[in-house]
Each structure stands twice: as C-alpha cells, then as structure tokens.
Amino acid sequence: MRKLVIPFAAAAFAFASANAQTTTLVEDTFSGLAATTLNGATPDTVGSGTWKTSPQKFYADGTVDVNDSYNSGAVYAFTPTPGSIYTLTASYSVTTDSAEWIGVGFAFDENWNDIGSNNRNRFVSAPTGTGTGNVLSGSAWAIGSGSSTAPTYSVFAGPGTANILVNQAASPATTYTWVIEMDMSGVDTVVTWTLNGTEVATNTYVGGAGIDVNCAGFASDNNAGGILNSFKLEVFEPDFDLITTNPVDDAVDVPASENLAAVFNADIQAGTSGNITLH
Question: pLDDT band for position 128 (50/70/90)?
C-alpha cells in the first residue's frame, strides 16, 4: 500500500479523481469555401453548433475580408459550467499594415443581430444589462494589429474595452496565437492570457462577479484583413471530493482510492500546521 504524507496548514483540500477529463467543445481549422460566409457554418472538426457572424467579413476558409469595413464578431455559443476550466486556443494572421485589429476571446452575446458598421458587434461595448440589448460584448479577450512598424496587442478584462490589462508593442510578427484560460473551479474566476507561448496577463474576477460569458470567438475592427488559422475550445471538468480540515497536532488519515489522479490543490493559509496522509 502506498502512503503519501503532506504537510498542511488550515486549508481546504480538493481532490480530483481519475474520472476528471478534458473535452473539446469546438474545433475549427476553417477548411470551408472562400465564397461561403462563416455565418451559419458548422466547425470542420468538432462541434455540432454553428458560427454566428455578419453575412460579410468572416468566411468559411478563414478569410477576414479587408474590403469589408463592417465591424463584426464571429462567435460560437456555449454555456459555461461553474467548477470547470475552459481553455480557448486560437491563431490568426493579420495581413493589413495598419492599427486596425483582429481580436479573440470569451464574450457575452446580448441578442446581437446588428450587422451594420458600429461598435456593438465587435466586443468593444459593455452589455446593456437587459439581456436583449443587441450587443456582442467582450468579457475576457485580446486584440492584435498588423502594423509593420509596431504591431500592438491589448488585453481586456472587460466588459468591452473596460479594465485594460496590457497595451504594448509586440514583436514584428503578425501571427497571433492566443491561449485564454478561464478557470471557474474556485470561488473566484481566474483568467490567464498567453500570447505566442508567453503569459502576458492574468485577472481575478472576485466571486465570479464581473464576467458574463455565453460564447467565444473573434472580432474584427473596420478594414482589418487577415486569416483565421484555427480555433479550439476545451473544457476540463474535475470530479471533486472536497475535504475541509481543521488544523490539528496529529496526522489526519484520508482514505483515497488507488486511481486518485495526480491533481492536488490546496489553499494554504499561514499559521498552524499538521499532516495529511493519503493511503
């Protein structure tokens, strides 16, 4: 029998069993036809739902049309589950040499249906709070421009462009690969942004407040042009048995099955200490 003794202070311990799993909710490599709009298209790899976008701007082959001046979003609907961790991985290339940008991230679709050129459909506006405010609002998102002199990326905690976390010049490359993780496994929701392999920002939404999400996808600014290379949304759903301990002087024996996964999270508080023993 194997035994693991772990020192602890007054803490809450969460154990994830081997039943925890990562599931791909949607994956698209945009292999459709150039003449076919992305609106209403089904992802080519994983996902039974459809993309929602304006009839112009975004196309099924990944083209972001530089000749279309519409501000627009392109989103895939999903319903987040508290306790889960969502990872959005998306890559796109910006082909326009300007400050106009393409963005990606988690968003809140407040019954958006306006395809005209305005700010309500490209993540930058806050929701009205009515649920039917005709706004597509960015909740945790980022943008990247294609300027050859100083490609700039920005990160927003939202809603919209509120709570900007990063705004700086990037490397000369104009291909952006974003990984945005939305961790809803704790009391607070924590979002982390990684750009081209480097973590660039993190934000904690205390108590989960301040972040409304019901979709994820892209946004485009005015005459920005480019190519959507890939989009993937995954969810990790832990199977938790939560054990809360009080500080003690002696060891606390906690039976655990042999298939206990190597995932062990503890919010250690300063002060007293003891041991937890896993059999």
Answer: confident
